[in-house]
UniProtKB/TrEMBL annotation:
InterPro entries linked: CAP_dom, CAP_sf
Entry protein name: CAP domain-containing protein
Region Disordered, annotated ranges: 348-367
Keywords: Signal
Domain SCP: 100-219
Gene source species: Synoicihabitans lomoniglobus
Lineage of origin: Bacteria, Pseudomonadati, Verrucomicrobiota, Opitutia, Opitutales
Highest taxon of the lineage: Bacteria
Amino acid sequence: MSSRLPFRILVLALPALLAAQPTAPTPADIDRLGAMSEINPKVQADGEPWTMDTGSREESRQFYRAIYGVSEGVPSGWDGDTASGTPGTTTAAFKEAVRNRVNFYRAFAGLSGNVSMNAQYSAKAQQAALMMSANSALSHNPPSSWTHFTTEGAEAAGASNLGIGTFGPETMDGYMRDHGPGNTQVGHRRWILYPQTREMGTGDVETQGSFAPANALWVQDSRTFDARPTTRDNFVAWPPKGNVPYQLVWPRWSFSLNNADFSAATVSMTRDGSPISTTIDAATGGGGAPEPTLIWRYDGLSGDLLTSHDRPTADTSYVVSINNVSVNGSAQNFSYTVNVFDPDVAGDDSSTPTISGSSTPSTGQATPYAVNLPSFASGLQWRELGTDSNGSIGYGAEEINSHPEIDGTSDSYSLWVTGVAATGNGAFYLAHPEPSTQSFQLPGTYLVPPNGAGTLAFNSRLGFATATQVARAEVSTNDGQQWTAVYEKAGNGSNSSPTESSYQNQSISLAAYAGQAVQVRFSYRHEGGSFFSQTDTSSGWLVDDIRMTGLMAVTATSTSAHITGSNFDYTPSAPGIKILQARGMFFGNYGMDWGPAFTAFAQEGGGDPTGDSRIVNLSVRANAASGNDTLNVGMVVGGTGTKPLLMRVVGPTLTDARFNLTGVAPNPALQVFTEGAITASNDNWDASLINTFNSVGAFALVDGSADAALVTNLSVGPPHPAIVNTQGNNGLVIVEAYDLEDPAVGTARLVNVSARNQVGTGSNVLVAGFVIGGTGSKTLLIRGVGATLADSRFNLTGVLADPQIIIRPLGSDEIVASNDNWNNDANIAAVSQTVGAFSLSSNADAAVLVTLAPGGYTATVSGVNDTTGIAIVEVYEVE
């Protein structure tokens, strides 16, 4: 077991931060800095300066999720050589990543996030970083005897924050944390958060042999003594007033105020209303730069800690009270609240970027759509997703010649190992040869069905690991900018026994991501303290047999640029299923979380993109019996509220002269269930329902017949099966459900109707009738399922092995759609997944996508070559 080598940083000595007020840069220093200034500093991204409001929890949450992560994982491209003294340079993209991290913190603190990178500063800072790495030391006044000493490097050292042990954006986090006994005055943080600064520069070198990585962040420019710009709050605090992700809260808190003297100030805090301890580390006063500051630690925490605030299970409120601050000779008091929260957890003020608009756009025609955006969004971005025929939903590390996974591990060991697998020969392996996050990402994007019926499963074996070595399975909803744990396990810390001695199967529900497109990765994190550094597979984390159930591999076929406002037009180029997503944007460049998928079915130059329609009637004619042959009719209500329905089971009436049928069930009863409980039932219908029959156009029942009828209100969400009880006398029945509301009224609607029964031959096939009401065409997914019912999810015997389905207008022999084998059609698979239909495991089942005008239709399920067996007919509304 090893101890983590600390990331060491050194307080900026120009000006010194000791008991007396730091000496400001001299007029000669200002002149020199001004000569290097880039006139009208380049703003390298549209939308700057960045500003944000920490008073909004959701804005703080999305700002963190959208912007912090864009600086992660950017290759430095460093082309220098520490051993020979060649400073080299890093890529423009890497310098931009550092700049973004600096501006992220400044905007969060209430400053204008528009610092630009000065090329001269960066070139000299590059030499300073090389000197720190080559001499394995930090100094703002390096002696000329240092290895690879340069005058320009020494100049940069005097004007820069300096860090060794890390480089790039990660070092900015260390400067803001300002841990360690030499940083009680948080000088690095204060220079990053100095309001007047507009130009900085960065120099970065990577690990090279025995030479450690290092950073020099040039933080002083010629504007040091310019007039103080307006800030969000009159003061500059860290953590700032308002809502702050827990990852950005460290033991040392600071409060800076221009022209203040904190030498006699006091500070107290409460957490969720209860007092906690505070310990003042430093209190500076007077004028000059950086600004006077009060620094303290809370709750008895050590300033040496590298870790942030614990992840809160609920938002945690801290009230800070600072009293007796002398401002221009006058005593003032300050009080503000910091709400520490988990940015992976949406709050009460969150909003989801849902898309609304036509579900039946026409090819070649622009159809308008609207996106629900938060008020702080600068606009939106939308994309179209296509099914990925190359996407995989299973990974087992068995590839011989290629590995599609994205490897995020150190070069000192291999992600793919053999001989220690759960099954097969290969497994994935993550270890900590050094205490940085190790990971691998699955290469695809996967759509979770709208009903949330998707799972991520894998075999896991965590070996020797400390309590701060944490294995995590994670998903991202914003293209990998932020990752949220869906599974987490820490080590047991034992030197004698591994955390897990054998593989454990993990199955994780992804219901929280219903309708979302997600990416998946596995990470092994170090959260401070000691760690097992061995890479012999007895230590670390082994993962095998990754599989995703109910998810569909998708890929973005097109992505828009930033669009101002909350609306966009979509013009489908070809008919078929279309999957759209949208998200809000910050500053025109940085995407928030993608919203849930919106599914439409494009028609060839037709359809009514403005008219509304819905399924208003279902009827099923079949032989009702008992056991596996029980007639089971299912209904699912979408939208909001409840749906009033008239339901009937008709048997005896079918014998009169209007129908003249024989072999009917003489006394059927009806039972309606919700989540396993009977919510409505009837044996013999009541004459008081005659007016209701007439209102929906239902045929009259014979007076006094033993048919069944009832009116019920079905809730949105769970399926509502209706069971026909023949009470021991089997026979032919018709089951009916009528929507009692006008199609133009209410938002609750029947979005899925289905029936399961024994399919015979001739007049004993399974026939489902349905009516589309309203003014617009309606796209439906209609399936006849038999073979799939035999798999392990259903375990039915005697199923219809090869069903076929035919759709006809009511009372007509015209066939408007038909199918025998669905053959894994990509559009069918996509729609089935997005409407929450169970996946079909057999190509022999039948399914069609069809767009129908308002009116009545029948869907007939029969067996190919007159085969018989149990089958389901399903009708899904496609939205």
